[in-house]
Amino acid sequence: MLAKWFYLAVLTMTLCACNSESQGKSSMTDKSTANREPFACAFEKDHLPDIDPELEKQYQEIRAYEKKQIPNKDEVNITNQYQLLADQGHWKAASQLAMRYLHGRGVEQSYFKALEWFQWMADRDIPLGYYNLAAMAEKGLALKEDKEGAWQYYHRAAQLGSPQAQYRLGEIYLYQRHEDAEGVAYHQCAAKQNYRESANALAAFAKIVEKNYPKALYYYQVAAALGRRQSMQTLEGVFRNGDFGYEINEVLAECYDKKYYRLRKNPDLKFPNLNELCPLPPHPEQGLYNPETDQNEMPEK
């Protein structure tokens, strides 16, 4: 019903020009009063529809082909291939098609067409559809900027397990609404889904707000292991310079530095055993963070 409401709202609102830029970011302050259910961590994989195996095979072939192309070399053909799959109900292809309309890749840019496909996804309770409707409403793309509508849609997407929506709400609750417990909970949920931006956000919050440096480095390590290059660079700098009270450790700094340059060459790399390859030492005063207890522990002497 929420998706249907939004669609009707789109028809009745004053629309922006197809190729207009965003009207600016809206702010989800305490003036946003949309009702929301109590937070419960949900995983996206539990809310995705089944996909026809043959269509999925075709989709993966298109994706692989797309990644090999020089920019703009075969964009029209790729867009057409996504269109064919989307017309057969493949939601991943529908998402790719919507993004192509959004950015004008292989097709004339149209925020309206992008909106239609995101709406198609939301009508099927696909989390990414709700998330992108929220982002468009927040930025004022294809319709007037609507922070209340965006607020509703971010929450719906998060309830269905969208890590992108959980990340966005985490940032809103932490830095706009100043509801730290709620913001951290959203980020923790997204981080459990291996969403590296939320792991990095938890690191930044622990460092800046809590001044808990072992906890910060634990989450930087999580983000770096998931391939976030800037987090890897942060870890390298900590032990290169002796930041936050840590002792300088050139061996550990080099360990992170080498992986940073590997990520520069291949951004898709992951390091699932990073903590074994580059083990974090205890902080001289605060010890080592234990994620199971959410406490710092000093090593036994």
UniProtKB/TrEMBL annotation:
InterPro entries, alphabetized: Sel1-like, Sel1_AlgK, TPR-like_helical_dom_sf
Q: Where is this region: Disordered?
A: 282-301
Pfam families reported for this sequence: Sel1
Q: Which domain of life is it from?
A: Bacteria
Signal peptide feature range: none
What is the name attached to this protein's record?
Answer: TPR repeat
**Whose protein is this, by species?**
Amphritea atlantica
